[in-house]
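Sample entry (313 residues):
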Amino acid sequence: MRKAKLLFITAALATVLTVPAHAASVGAATVQVDALNLRSAPSTAASILATANENAVVIIGDKSSALWYRVVYRGFTGYMMASYLSSAETLEGDFGNGSVRSGAAALREAPDLFAPSLGYCQSGATVNILGVSGSWYKVQYGSATGYLHSGDVAVTIDANKLPVTADAKLSAAETETRAGQTIVETAMKYLGCPYVYGGTSPSGFDCSGFVQYVYNECGISVTRTAASIYASDGVAVDKSALEPGDVLCFSNSSEAVGHVGIYIGNGQFIHASTSSTGVIISPLDMDYWVRNYVGAKRIVSADANTTAAAATT
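Predicted structure, serialized as tokens:
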């Protein structure tokens, strides 16, 4: 009997290999924060297409930028900040459904063009995407499980699993996470700006001027100097509990608290460093910063700082 779901092919046809013309995936990632925005362009000024919850899985289409990945989430294609994603070449999870583009998409036993073929999937057929392996999707098609090249599959929007919207009620932790996310996104806009002692604008920042400017842009008031931020602003946070948006405080050769920066996640922070570097990203585990680390302050709060949280929705 001819199978309705899967068209099996002859040994001769199995030797024909084709590479799909559509863009392929390069891996997948898991969301590492309570809520992460998917934007229409790699910019904090771009419109928000959807919001993914913590541990949601996304398909990565391009990761050439250190700051933004182009991803597919539940059928929406857009950009997410790389620092909030844990990426892998191979990842299994519920990636939703897809529709077969090609009229003769080969379902293979392994994620390789030379792997034995299980048969052809019909054009327009629906598959369940169970995982990503580089440029291949692990799928279930009828009773068969195998691999389709990602270029042969268009991820479809699942009406029963739409992303969290801006109207969803957020918990206090989610609100704080979104506020921290907005602060990091805002700070990233000024990467590469020059360092100027006493500077408080994109034409030139010093360390605390940079922190104050970023927070002010997000609608949050902070004091002007590194020492006053550490002494007066926010609440103290243990180093093991750092979240994106927290202010990191360091000593220097002349002051007990003489330098500040903004934690961006993944053990890194952004700061106005020196006149030779300007605003840069540095690893927190670098010897100098380890030796001079004083503490961290969490200035965003779900109750007091709703402006920054709202900016992410």
